[in-house]
Each structure stands twice: as C-alpha cells, then as structure tokens.
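step=predict obj=AhpC/TSA family protein n=323
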Amino acid sequence: MNTSYHPKQWMKYVLILAGFYNLAWGATAIMLPVHMLGWLGIQSETTAMKFWQCIGMIVGVYGVGYLIAARAPYQHWPMTLVGLLGKVLGPVGFAAAMADGSLPTSLGWTIVTNDLIWWIPFAMILWGAMRYCHATDSAYETPEADDPLKELRANTGERLDDLADAKPQLVVFLRHAGCTFCRQTLADVAAQRKEITAAGCGIVLVHLGGNDESDQQFFQKYGLNDVPRISDPQSRLYRQFGLDLGGFSQLFGLRVWFRGFVAGVLGGHGIGAVRGNSFQMPGVYLYHCRQILGGFRHEISSDRPDYAALARKIEVREPALAS
C-alpha cells in the first residue's frame, strides 16, 4: 500500500505518551488520593477518597489500552475511539457539574491534561485509520503494475481504449451512488449531453458500483443508461488516472457541507446510502488515442466542472494530433 496511508511515527509516540501518562496519573490517584484531592481543593473525605481511587483505576486501565494501541495505531483504532469519547464526555460532565456548583473550578486542570490536549492527536489518528480502512482491499494497496485499461470493460463489452481509439471520450469518474454530488454530476452530464456529443466526444461513466439491476435503474433515472459505463469498485481506473482518496477538508469541509445543502436540498438531488468507497475523489478527463488531452481534478468533492466546455477542447487539440 502507498506509504501515505500508513500510520505516522508520531502516532505511536502519542499513544505511548498517553499510556504512561494515564498509568502515572492513575497510580498517583490510587496511592496518594489525599494529596491529589488537597491540591485540587477538594475535601478528602472517605467517600471522596474511595471515589477518586476508583477513577484512578479506570484512568490506569485506559493507559494499558493506549500502550497496546501504540503497537498498531490503525488496527487498534477502537481503543483510540473509546479514549476520545471519554475525553470529550469528561469535559461535558465537568462543565455541567461546575455550572451547578458541584465541583470546584480547580478541578479544571485535570480536564486540560487528561482530556483537552489529546483531542487533536487522537482525532488525527482516527481519521488516518479511516483512510487506511478505505484504502484496504482497493487499488491503493495493489502493485503499481496493475493495468486496468487492459482488463476492465464497459457494460458494452468494450475497453476504454477501444472506445477512445474510435473517437475522443469524456471520461467521468463518479463518487458512490448515494452521494449528492454524484447525482448532481449525472444530472449535469445529462443536461449537457447534446453539447458534448456535438463537440465530437463520446461519454464514458466510471463508477464504484456494479452492473446489477439497481445500478441500471440508477443511471436510467438520469437518462444515461445507454451511455457506456465501467464498473470499478476497487478504484483501479481512478488511480490509473491520478485520482486519490480525499482528505478531511475535501470531503467534509465547510464548502462541501454548504454545497451539499444546495445540491441535496435546494437542488433536489437528495442523498442515499453509501454504495462504494465514500472517500474516493471524482474527476473528469478528455481521453483520446490513449492520451489525456485535458481534464478536471476535483479539489473538493463538491466541485462542479463544465463538462461541455471540457469536451470542446477537442476542437483545439484535433488539428495538432492530425499533424
């Protein structure tokens, strides 16, 4: 697999540090509850001491879990997730207790060191683990020698090169069928279809689904069931054309949410269940005689290229090819 999907070295050290910190904090709470409570301004009554020691045991157990997770941060992501949930809910509970005067503000120092400072690194580890899981069992972990152009065929039985040798093809790489932007793309392609074909281009759709009846109905909904389409659930062609899995801002940034609302709600495209690799980025390329003549690589998943304008570029390129 591409090393960019592997855990970063700092993730291991963060989890090791979190593990030893929790063990040290837990051991101190168990063995020296009076001193800790006194430093925090809490009366060390018997009940408070026993309760504090119980908290110390819980914190210490989490430390063991973090040390285990440090051995393989992505494989053991559930431990990091549980830890992050605790580090988020802890401050919430503290804020509620402080609001009604149940706990002193001095206890806030433990919230900072036990919880808040770990939010960002733990969240980054979890995000990396998600990308790693989406890269697993896909083209992003197969050898670079993989040649999908020779192996993958459209529903018509032809390879992409066969279609592109006959005439230029506008190759549209889609996101999964449940994605609002995938649906918007199909609607745009259908609306601009006459302009695209008038420019001398064919259209090929590359998608992450299969070729079953539900997929046929999906494309039929947009009047594109007769367009050649290539099923590529492992993202082999996507990688061949230089497309990659998206980063956080590319998939979940503020602009993506805003455009998702506009396309999904105001535009009526809606949203459906995830069907395919939801991290896969889309794109569109003008492909002819085994050459990429132009294209648009999405910076964010909600980008909306002008497909007809891209198809018209062939009018400029063709004389150069002929010479």
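step=describe
The radius of gyration is 27 Å.
step=end
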